Amino acid sequence: MKRTSCTWLCIFTGPLLLVATPLAAQPTAEERGHWSFRTLRRPEVPKVQSPRSRTPIDAFLLDKLKSKGLDFAKDADKPMLLRRVYLDLLGLPPNPDEIRQFVADDRPDAYERLLDRLLASPQFGVRWGRHWLDAAGYADVGGTDNDAGIIRMAEGSWRYRDYVIRSFNEDKPFDQFLLEQLAGDELDDWRAAKTFTPAMRDRLIATGFLRTAADDTEENELNTLDIRHGVLHRTAEVVASNVLGLTLNCAKCHDHKYEPISHEDYYRFIAVFSPAFNPQQWLQPKVRMLADVPPPEKSAIDKDNAHLASQVEELKKKKLELKKDPKAAADLDVKIGALNAKKKSYGQLRAVYDAGPPTPTRLLRRGDHAKPGKEITVGGLEVLCPPAKKQLPDVKPAGATSGRRLALAQWLTEPSTPASGLVARTQVNRVWQRLFGKGIVPTSDNLGMSGARPSHPELLDWLAAEFVDKKWRLKPLLRQIMTSSAYRQSSLASPDAAKVDPANHLLWRMPLRRLEAEIVRDSILAVSGKLDPTVGGPPTPLENRPDGLVVVKDPGKYRRTVYVLARRNYHPTLLNVFDQPFMTTNNLCRSPSAVVLQSLTMLNDTFIVEQAGVFAERVLRDGKTDALERQVESAYLLALTRPPSAKESAACMEFLRRQTDRHSAAKLPSAEAPRRALANLCHVLLNTSEFLYVP
């Protein structure tokens, strides 16, 4: 496949200027042996003699550290390690009782017991489900969401969000998790089912993964062939970038410039999704919705409801003729109410299923839907297929469906193949990224030839092999990584180590990480005691205020942020300034910023100021004392998971006295002045870097 082609750049600067630039030659067979495209093999664990080596993970890291004369930092102290683990696994800080219990627990396996307890918490799925929702491009709105004042809800999308959170809490094996999301509708003959079992309904909900791409075709004016093709292509590209960590977009128009992915490869992959998103037999979003009852039951309910509705209309007509007879009209109202009460209803599932028999998929010249080329057969990416095999596995789907997506799911997780090796590496690399701030491959959205090289390729392959051997389960993988010395080490910098490895590529200390936007808000609510931990259900609405602020509305305004209405472009103001990503497609790696607006928001936002006051009330209520020293200690434990140092305690008590005098001078009641001063201190703690960062 060694070839070149041309792309034309048109620049209008007076006369038309055409500049021809050759595309890069396709990678050779030798280049296709790139580490990410190889079949997964388990490397041998290095033999490292070190008291800091607790796990094989440490051995891989120490092997490189020792070669540079470096070692791990000392272990983090117990309060800081506790805070790190809580924020990483639950996205919430520990409360004072949990802090005291862990610090006082001297059992050798106290840390492992802590991990097991948190991994079993229902809040674990909330935290780790959010990571997957990012990668899936989840939103509660259906279209491109380009108008702040107009919210077009994607009805029932929240059921997919709840499915994801449940799956993480159940520790559903990733290969099954992926199978259900790509082809849940092809696992059961739901069209002929007499009833939907909970498992069958769950598998249909899971296919909501393929409904996350923005789809504007609900508007008849936008239900055009080019936009339909756009939805199909975005869906396939979200799957590829999320599951395989590859960029396919370039191959839409020509052979990929940097990756061993041909123009034909791209359309073989597109052909997998064409029966469900067939531009020629298109289903608009509302038409595509499925009832949460079997089709025969839905037809019966619709027929009965229509019959009842016709009876109601007849009675309403009679009622109009009885205007002068109030008693008779009232009797008719009773009958109308009784008929309406007999009507049945059903929910809506935002699912995916084949829209009809597969039609030919054609290679689009230059990616233009108006220039179809030769017919393309369905298949996998050649570079990830065994030699001389481009076809997907033979499968037997349930019911009237093509089985293409079921074949894709099996191809992606089939043991001992290049495709499953890349899937495992991609997912393990993202887990590492979420615990250490940066993946073993820094470009976690691109594990191809144009992406960065892994800092520890053998460790990545070893972890991926462990992941597969442990039945693709996340919780054992997390436990293994988090029991390592690498994870448990302090984040304090060493000047000597910084001279050798200033960017900390070799992990001689734990990197500091800024909390994600959702966890900033959730942590504030947890510290104030206002957090509502209820799991599941429709999203909490937003309010666009005239001053430009976007805030969370009642009811449910104190729920965890994953349950707040997820828009593509218009986020709550607090989340927006802390870098909640725009979901134009999907997000595979959040990029934290440090801008002045974050400090200004934390100092002046009404929600923050309100919660600081509630935080102060909690300190007074829990401490049951007016002693300033106890108040300071309680506030520190709640906000920062540690007691204050003697110097910090003295400074805070002086601050409280000074602020109390200032509020008293402002004619506040004598009982109110110290409360206001404590609220000021609590506000200061919420504004510290220590509160906003994972230690």
Explain what the structure shows.
The chain has 695 residues and is mainly alpha-helical. Among the domains are: 6-34, no CATH class; 76-120, no CATH class; 127-289 and 351-413, no CATH class; 296-346; 604-694, no CATH class. 47% of the residues lie in helices and 5% in strands. It is built from 27 helices and 10 strands. The strands form 5 sheets. The chain has a two-stranded antiparallel sheet. The chain has a two-stranded antiparallel ribbon with strand order 3-4. A two-stranded antiparallel sheet has the order 5-6. Strand 1 and strand 2 form a beta hairpin. The longest helix has 27 residues, at 295-321. The protein is globular. The relative contact order is 0.13.
Set out the fold topology:
Layout: E1 6-12, E2 16-22, H1 56-67, H2 78-89, H3 96-104, H4 110-119, H5 122-136, H6 157-170, H7 174-183, H8 198-206, H9 225-244, H10 263-273, H11 285-288, E3 290-291, H12 295-321, H13 326-342, E4 348-349, E5 361-364, E6 372-376, H14 404-413, H15 418-436, H16 457-469, H17 474-482, H18 485-488, H19 495-500, E7 513-514, H20 517-528, E8 542-544, E9 550-552, H21 573-577, H22 596-604, H23 606-623, H24 628-640, H25 646-665, H26 672-686, H27 689-692, E10 693-694
Antiparallel strand pairs: 1-2, 3-4, 5-6, 7-10, 8-9
Entry keywords:
695 residues, mainly alpha, 10 strands, disordered N terminus
